[in-house]
Design goal:
Chains A, B: Pfam families: AHSA1. The structure is a homodimer. By secondary structure, chain A is of the alpha+beta class. Chain A has one domain: START domain (Alpha-D-Glucose-1,6-Bisphosphate, Chain A, domain 4, 2-Layer Sandwich), CATH 3.30.530.20. The first copy, chain A, contains four helices and nine strands, in the order E-H-H-E-E-E-E-E-E-E-E-H-H. In chain A, the strands form two sheets. In chain A, strands 1-9-8-5-4-3-2 form a seven-stranded antiparallel β-sheet. In chain A, strands 6-7 form a two-stranded antiparallel sheet. In chain A, a hairpin with a 2-residue loop joins strand 8 and strand 9. The longest helix of chain A has 18 residues. The interface between A and B is medium-sized, with 22 and 22 residues.
């Protein structure tokens, strides 16, 4: 971790890495935890392989739509998922790359230790992400992920 | 291919994809073709896996040194090598991403059809790369690769 470029949070989730992995890579499940209310994830496409598409469509309470087009860079089942908006599917560069998410799952005491490491190009991008509410947003999403996985 | 963002060139190499692949992924061999004279490649590190390090050190005729730190994104032996300066090893973002190279090898008539597709974030970056001498530089390198592979 590079303190001036990265943001990170962790959660202990009372479910197996296999279950958490399913929640990360199944579109209908991803949409149940990925976005903090009042926004919601209306649609997702996840191709868990290097260069695969990682797409999600966020919808706001007033009908706003925010499509997110990115790529998976690494998918190690039950262990690690890396995705980014630096590229779209097939390694096509995005003009305005902002972040890369490196999510790791580790078995711990019968549960899963979930860590989201989010990396940026510049200290300014990191600061902007933090100001946009990284800890609340990704934190709420992680809590929602835990609730979903623990109920499966 | 996206015409305003990509540059591309191809060569027919009279060697097997396995031999060309060896020239792409063995540091001592890469250094024999990767840089057009009078510059030379003095050192390379290639970790052919997603997130692996792709490093090369170019030295100029007057002792100039140009280190290039990037990452491999995909390594499909004898078929496809994707590397970029968007990240360093371990998916650490670079502040000034410039290009991604998607190299494919295809068997054709007992030879190898080599294609280097080089992608950029913006039309300006593509134009800059073309003005820097993409076709001469990557073309000379491809010719050197062919000569090396055909002699192995």
């Amino acid at each position: 971790m590079t303190p001036d470029l990265d943001l990170q949070l962790s959660r202990q989730i009372k479910a197996s890495p296999a279950t958490v992995w399913t929640c990360l890579t199944t579109p209908e499940l991803l949409c149940q935890w990925f976005v903090p209310a009042p926004w919601r994830c209306a649609e997702a496409v996840i191709e868990p392989q290097p260069g695969g598409r990682f797409y999600s469509l966020f919808k706001g309470p007033d009908g706003e739509e925010m499509p997110n087009e990115g790529a998976i860079l690494l998918a190690e089942p039950e262990q690690r998922l890396v995705f980014t908006d630096f590229f779209r599917a097939g390694f096509v560069p995005n003009e305005t790359p902002f972040m890369l998410a490196d999510i790791t799952l580790a078995p711990r005491d019968g549960s899963t230790h979930y860590t989201a490491l989010v990396r940026h190009r510049t200290p300014e991008d990191r600061a902007r992400h933090e100001e946009m509410g990284f800890h609340e947003g990704w934190g709420t999403a992680a809590d929602q992920l835990a609730t979903l996985a623990e109920g499966l």
